[in-house]
Amino acid sequence: MTEPVVGPDRTTPGHRRRETTMISRGEKSAMDLIETRLRQVIADARQPRIEPADIPSTGLLDTLGLDSGACLSLLLSVEEEFDIEIEDADLSPRLVDDLTVLADYVRSRTGSLELS
């Protein structure tokens, strides 16, 4: 079963029509699961520890005060948790600053929506 995901409203003059993409409920729940697991990994890696529910979706670098060493440690923890390898070419501040971007990257690297 799929549900529509509506993009930005582009019905105003000068914009194209509204974009709609279909994602399956399974994919959405898999992304939710990945984000939940990522929040736990971040919480466990952060010193002092922070509750997973207190981890924002964006602005992780500034909000959590992550420096380059903490970012590398976090990415190593993500690799271990999801049994993936983050390619050097894929490393960017945006990857560790936005939870949704990181979750999407993890999903793309697992090759499957079935995560245990």
Automatic annotation (TrEMBL):
InterPro entries: ACP-like_sf, PP-bd_ACP. Residues 32-110 form the Carrier domain. Gene3D superfamilies: ACP-like. Residues 1-22 are annotated as: Disordered. SUPFAM superfamilies: ACP-like (SSF47336). Pfam families: PP-binding (PF00550). It comes from the Bacteria. Coiled coil: none annotated. This is Acyl carrier protein.
